[in-house]
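Dear colleague,

Following up on Tuesday's group meeting, I ran the structure prediction for the two-component complex that the binding team flagged. I've pasted the input sequences exactly as they went in, so you can double-check that nothing got truncated or mislabelled along the way. The structure tokens for the whole assembly follow below. Feel free to forward this to whoever is handling the docking comparison.

Inputs:
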Amino acid sequence: MAEFFHMGGYGLYVWGSYGVVAVFLALELIFLARRKQALLERLTALREMEEDKS
Amino acid sequence: MAIHWTKYSAPSAFYPMAGRSLPWLAAGTLLLTAVGVYMGLFSAPTDYKQGEAYRIMFIHVPAAWMSMWLYIVMAAYAGLGLVYNTRMAHMLAAATAPTGAIFAFLALWTGAFWGRPMWGAWWVWDARLTSELILFFLYLGVMALRAAIDDRQRADRASALLALVGVVNVPIIYFSVKWWNTLHQGATIDFSGSKMDRSMLWPMLILTVAFWLYSFVTIFLRARCEILERERHAEWVGELLDNRG
């Protein structure tokens, strides 16, 4: 197992690549999910305000 | 299967179609990423020259391919938006840019992490690396221009124009290794075939499809947000919000 993480001496470079790719792709998805949630809440609130007015 | 592309140029039709596709696209992304990473890190043999460091290529090459491909996709939607004045095309162009920018950044990042042990340098001002860096800046420029203009239609048109002008950079990236003497190696896989062993080719191709499906997921998610923002006064969006409870 330790040998696997060592990557023949290239551990820093291999994991530095795979790790950053994984983090960025995961973060993009998390931000998108949050954006959608916040957007739905804001639009629902706006709609209720507009309905109250009319 | 007949796909009626014009049908989905209506945001009210695109939104539910994207919603229905997302679980399948997400499942495909997860499955292929798992298989590709497993093959890339475990089953592909050690390279006789580069040792284990070459495993970075399994994500570097797909990320670089996707960064170029998504730019073409973004420019195509920008062009469609300009010519036919369709809102959905502009929304899809806007939805494509951030994912493209991320892949351009990741191509540069993983390239640096491969270059350091293999070339002895994180970065060199080589034609391939420099043109890919310009691609990254073009994505940022298109996104910044859109964000800087308050009027939606003007923002759409201005950023579409910049996206179209910038597309000239994509063939420059692709042919840079032929046109100039670059430190970056030439193409191992091109339209005539591959010079790679199959055990190393497969993980790269599988991860390319995985990144491509991933792009569909993020672009569909982002396009759905764009639609809700822009079409919030449409009747169907109102019903959708009411049905949320």
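Chain B has one domain: 21-44+53-187+197-243.

Cheers,
M.
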